[in-house]
Description:
Oligomer: single chain
Strand content: 15-25%
Number of strands: 11
Mean pLDDT: 91
Helix content: 25-40%
Shape: globular
Largest sheet: 6 strands, mixed
Low-confidence stretches: none
Radius of gyration: 19 Å
Amino acid sequence: MAGARGVVVTRPAPDAARWVHDLQQRGIAAVARPLIAIGPSPAHQAQLQAALAQLAQYRALMFVSGNAVTYFLEQKNALTLLQQALTATNLRAWTPGPGTARVLRAHGIDPAAIDGPAPDAAQYDSEALWAQVATQITPGARVLIVRGCQAGQVDDAGQGRDWLAAQLRAAGATVDFAIAYQRSAPVFSPEQQALAQAAASDGSLWLFSSSEAVTHLQQALPTQNWAGAQALATHPRIAQAVRAAGFGLLHECKPAFTDVVASIESAL
């Protein structure tokens, strides 16, 4: 996999490739093993177009991830419509962390229109975001949460940020959802399966940024014993999933790149 004492990056591609590159620049051996496959959701294109047509009605658009930004803005005229709404109304763009904010900025969204957790927040998640934006919401406000769904899902329920939706409703807001992409488990080739099995006991450090990635790894290797493996989780909920999977050694840290690097250097 990454060879003994290396890092296995499980983020979706191409995000995993970027992390591998950045880790290698810091002198850390790393390899990408995406455990979540990301792609557009054809069944929800009409839903996205409907959301774009009424951006002016929203107080905020909450993007659950950088992928939510990317696939939302792939829609025809989406970037122009979003920029116009951010300029002409009091619309705000909400993010759960700096990675999502970085994707928005890369698309040309004014940083002054983006809200997210404070840089020194203990975690980058809905709770930290809500601490920053709760005062923006008054009864009657409307918020759109842009998120993903499991591949093959055709309803509009989606998955992601249900806790945040509950806080918004309690504050008197109306919450709408738009599904911008779909997630699925990757298919392991025999070689990839063998490499993953080796990384369960060769001292490699599995880097998890999603509980779903842990689930997909278990599904791909249902009989694998993880007692000899170590992992680094970037959120308490992810750490809980790692423990449940049976990893023998677990490290936890904040999801910021500098914190991840420091934890990796301490673990390896």
